[in-house]
Amino acid sequence: MLDHLFTAIANRIAAFVGDSWAFIIAALVVIVWGITGPLFDYSDTWQLVINTGTTIVTFLMVFLIQNSQNRDAAAMQAKLDELIRAVDDARAQFIGIEHKTDREIEKIRADLEKECQDADEQARGKPNSDEYVDRLMRRR
């Protein structure tokens, strides 16, 4: 219940703050704050208002952004796992590797690159991945 409520609220806030109107509103708040400086003689309280406000908003946004990134990454991982599961020649051992350590994942990546490089060398007459990349770079 609480999880669904938080997700719904987080999604709405993320959609709002990701919109151009949120930037415009934030810019207007800063402009209004700046204009009111002379009215308040640029007092410590006047400065504290913007400092406190921006600190609170930044603090809360960090958690909101992290929540959105975690959710997006989990959804993407589930989609990739489903693709691995659905493709006949795919290696199901790759499902769940996101739970391994950084060192283990780097080893897997290096092994895959070596495997692809070896396959490129064995394919007669076909350009290897470096040649493909070079060809793409020359297109610019």
Largest sheet geometry: none
**Total number of helices:** 5
Domain count, please report it.
Answer: 2
CA gyration radius, whole angstroms: 25 Å
Share of helical residues: over 70%
**Multimer state:** single chain
Strand count: 0
Low-confidence stretches: none
Overall, the morphology is: elongated
First and last CA, distance: 52 Å
Report the average pLDDT across residues: 89
SS content category: mainly alpha
What's the helix-strand series?
HHHHH
β-strand percent reads under 5%
Salient structural properties:
mainly alpha; 2 domains
Describe the protein's architecture and organization.
- It holds the Pfam family Iron_permease.
- InterPro entries: Iron_permease_Fet4.
- Keywords: Membrane, Transmembrane, Transmembrane helix.
- It comes from Sphingomonas naphthae.
- This is Low affinity iron permease family protein.
- It is elongated, with a radius of gyration of 25 Å.
- The longest helix has 43 residues.
- It contains five helices and no strands.
- Helix 1 crosses helix 3.
- The model has no long low-confidence stretch (mean pLDDT 89).
- The protein starts with a helix and ends with a helix.
- It has 140 residues and is an all-alpha fold.
- The protein folds into two domains: 98 residues; 41 residues.
